[in-house]
Design brief:
By secondary structure, the chain is mainly alpha-helical. It has 14 helices and 4 strands. The chain has a two-stranded antiparallel ribbon with strand order 1-4. Strands 2-3 form a two-stranded antiparallel ribbon. A hairpin with a 2-residue loop joins strand 2 (179-186) and strand 3. The chain is globular, with a radius of gyration of 22 Å. The chain starts with 10 loop residues before the first helix and ends with a helix.
Length: 378
């Protein structure tokens, strides 16, 4: 079922028109979009801002979900591996920064971030080596157990802070360059508010916008790496493994090696996002990494369209932003969110922005159904 023709909008035709634009025009449009995204916490647009919550903090949460969704999309969308314990990698990245930054050592933040992603990647390899030999539901159960094992280990280990958690997690080093004023809206008119400013690259407690800028920069870097991997031999091997692992093996693709690479790459990005989360929070405990978080990460990928990097970005925005935007409806916002997911699963099961291969497969299935129906009538 497609909403495009019903609404009078053809996404394929729109994409073709954008592709046909001259390269300078496309680069100019991309530059304007990037500038708009960086300026979002300063614009505080009335339509999308969150009145009861710090808008910069909400934007960082959304960016964190986007980063996680991009990592999980490599595992689920590209390689076809159902990982229900992705929050475990998120927690390992966060605890690495917290333990070696405040609890057991006082390492520099510039050392902590590489250390976090290295340890998380190694954990992905250690988990993937024995578990990726199973498939489907068994893999999902094993990864689900992994996520809970990480949380329970942190809960019961004094060396990791146990239930009381870890405080004093180091923040990114600040470089206070200049102040940027916010906009204040008086109806439809915007006024520059010189009393409400953000100090560029000052990572403190009161203003969350610099954390959002840092996360957004990392998202662009991950997107570039994601695109290169998707178009490379590695990406084609992942796609072959996802579509039919046995056929890929017969064609000479070392599927286990590429599945392990997908797992390690996803763990790398998940650990990076968890490290940013811990640096921004300044405090973590095991309750920050519940199983529900894994379900939300998975929902972001499925809602957006597994296999489409831009789709999972949209899915992460939907999952992370909508509950905060409607926080005023405290008693109803989760119900509305659940109803929206239910409607989506029924009327758009392939996701908001499914990859092209999904749309092609759906078109072929519809043609086959039409042919079978015609044969039956004949």
């Amino acid at each position: 079922m497609s909403w495009g023709p019903r609404l009078g909008w053809d996404r394929g035709a729109f994409a073709r028109r954008v592709t046909a634009l001259p390269r300078p025009v496309k680069w100019a449009l991309i530059g304007l979009l990037v500038l708009f995204l960086y300026a979002l916490p300063l614009l505080e647009l009335p339509i999308i801002s969150t009145p009861r919550t710090d808008f910069g903090a909400v934007l960082f949460t959304v960016a964190s979900y986007v980063l996680v969704a991009l990592g999980l999309n490599i595992v689920l969308g590209y390689a076809g591996l159902l990982d229900l314990g992705y929050v475990g990698f998120y927690a390992i990245g966060a605890y690495t920064v917290a333990v070696f930054g405040s609890l057991q050592a006082q390492l520099s933040w510039w050392v902590l971030i590489p250390l976090a992603v290295v340890i998380t990647t190694i954990s992905g390899l250690l988990l993937g080596w024995p578990t990726l030999r199973v498939r489907g539901d068994y893999l999902a159960i094993v990864t689900l157990g992994f996520g809970e094992i990480i949380r329970l280990t942190a809960l019961n280990t004094q060396w990791l802070g146990a239930a009381k958690g870890i405080t004093g997690v180091p923040r990114p080093p600040s470089v206070e360059l200049f102040d940027v004023p916010h906009l204040e809206w008086e109806g439809a008119r915007a006024v520059i508010d010189l009393d409400d400013t953000t100090t560029f690259l000052k990572f403190g407690v009161a203003d969350q916008a610099p954390y959002y800028w840092l996360a957004l920069t990392l998202i662009f870097i991950v997107l570039g790496a994601d695109r290169m991997m998707r178009l490379s031999r590695v990406g084609r091997a992942w796609e072959a493994t996802r579509e039919d692992e046995d056929a890929a093996e017969l064609m000479g693709v070392p599927t286990f090696r590429f599945k392990l690479l997908a797992f390690a790459t996803g763990a790398f990005i998940g650990g990076l996002s968890g490290a940013l989360f811990a640096s921004r929070q300044g405090f973590i405990n095991p309750e920050s990494f519940l199983l529900l978080l894994s379900i939300l990460f998975l929902a972001a990928v499925v809602v957006g369209g597994a296999g489409n990097r831009y789709g999972v970005i949209l899915g992460a925005i939907v999952v992370a932003y909508l509950p905060e935007r409607f926080r005023g409806f405290e008693e109803w916002r989760l119900l509305v969110f659940g109803v929206a997911l239910l409607l989506l699963s029924n009327f758009r099961p392939q996701g908001l922005l499914p990859p092209r291969r999904t749309k092609r497969a759906q078109a072929v299935d519809e043609q086959l159904d039409a042919l079978e129906e015609g044969n039956v009538r004949a």
